Amino acid sequence: MIAIVDYGVGNLFSLRSSLAHIGAEAMVTGDPAVIAAADRVILPGVGAFGDAAQKLRKSGLAKVVCDEAERGKPLLGICLGMQLLFERSFEYGEHEGLGLLKGSVVPMAGRLPPELKIPQIGWNALHICRPSPLLRHVQEGDHVYFVHSFFAEGCEDSRIATTDYGEELTAAVGLGNVFGCQFHPEKSGRVGLGILRAFAEGEATP
Amino acid sequence: MITKRIIPCLDVRDGRVVKGTNFAGLRDVSSPVELARYYSDNGADELVFYDITASAEGRRLFTDILVEAASTVFIPLTVGGGINTLDDFDRVLKCGADKVSVNSGAIRNPALVGEAAKRYGDQCVVLSADVKRVDGEFRVFAKGGRVDTGMEAIEWIRRCVGEGAGEVVVNSIDTDGVKGGFDLPMLEAVTKAVSVPVIASGGAGCMEDFVTLFQTLPGVDAGLAASIFHFGEVRIDALKRLLREKGIPARLG
Fold first, then answer.
1. What is the C-alpha separation between A78 and A99, in angstroms, rounded?
2. Is A20 on the interface with B (CB under 8 A)?
3. β partners of residue A27
4. Which of A50, A76, A175, B101 lies most in the core, judged by the most C-beta atoms within 10 Å?
């Protein structure tokens, strides 16, 4: 069973229904015991980093997510949920992340060519930098759906795919049992369903 | 490189897809869920469901259909029509919408855009503006394009984006249903005024109209249309292939 961590951030309808569509058993939960008992964990999220990090900590869910990841349980962060896996974010100030992956989250503003719109909203191509079980159904150049104004950098050790938006931005990460997608696999059609399937089918150790 | 989006719009009344010409003379086309699946399979980048129902009964039919569509089609879904309050946002977001488009609701209550953006995020709030030339200026129209609000459109759009609208759909009443191409001068004025994604609507009659749109106005991010897709005059997969042949970035489904 996949536990979808519910900490009061974002709309989980599509994530739940896309997992149901690929036949994966999933449960939306804010209960640490359920998360601890699950085979895999998905950390979703949209909105502001600081607010989300605080909610995760206050609810005690940050601890269980980190503990389970450190025990080797597969974890997938999506969008803001991926950004939360890193050490810190510079989204309106500086905020501490979960620190499961090396790197930080920085704003696009001031970094990208001025003709590019912020946020990046729409379908962009994945460039695979290294093989990962998460991308086993993905072909080089497949398109996925992005909505973001911030991106992860300094994460060369975990980066598995990038996307070209002015520069090569981190699109997906994977290191051991910890994975993340900057884009929304639950909104990325056939390609996105393949990524969720790869996560759901992957090896689940503890 | 980010691709240009092609977005079919499904006007839904009492659970069925309809499309009018110049907003009048509606005619039944097909089942919204079937059409949504068909478009998604053929490479649509996003879908808009526009609820033109007036009755509470029709509203319930609409949200049932939305749930069904969002459970089988995994591309972004935008819902519009009858969005007047934060409760309306809530109602459709819970049923699987990813973005909510406001039109008359924002005209009646200009605080709505800001309040919704604050609660759900800018990326969730789409401003839809029906615009028509009156006395040499662009005017915003309300109530499905029937009522002249007297407001200048570019200023209105700029203001709503300032409040937090994350995308703008510009529907030209002057070109809607005419099938003579998108309203390039109107769209150019909007792309110059705002930095969020701009979605062109109204006037597409053939595939070449989309090529002209994206080649002439690189600041336009997406093209939206209804009847040409519903009646099969333009197939989305063929349109995407043509865009790519012309050097316009497009995603093949």
1. 16
2. yes
3. A3
4. A76
Kind and range of the H or E run holding B163:
helix B153-163
As a whole number of angstroms, the distance between CA B166 and CA B127 comes to 8
pTM: 0.95
User: In the CATH scheme, what is the code of domain B5-245?
Assistant: 3.20.20.70
Query: How crowded is residue A62: how many other Cβ atoms within 10 Å of its Cβ?
Result: 22
Determine the average pLDDT of the residues in A39-47.
Answer: 92
User: Least CA distance to A193: which residue of chain B?
Assistant: B74
**Domain edges within chain B:** 5-245
Answer yes or no: is pLDDT of B22 > 70.
no
pLDDT of residue B25: 40
A47 vs B95, B121, B166: nearest CB:
B121
Calculate the dihedral angle through the C-alpha atoms of B13, B117, A181, A142, rounding to the nearest 10 degrees: 50
Rounded average pLDDT over A157-171: 97
* Alpha carbon distance A89, A46 (integer Å): 14
Average pLDDT score over residue span A153-172: 97
Closest C-alpha among A186, A192, A130 to residue A17: A186
A8 touches chain B (CB under 8 A): no
Q: Do A192 and B74 touch (CB under 8 A)?
A: yes
pLDDT at residue number B30: 66
B85 CB contacts (<8 Å, ≥6 apart)? B105, B109, B112
Provide the residue count of chain B. 253
A2-92+103-201: what fold?
Rossmann fold (3.40.50)
Q: Tell me, what's the pLDDT at A9?
A: 74
Q: How many CB atoms lie within 10 A of CB A98?
A: 23
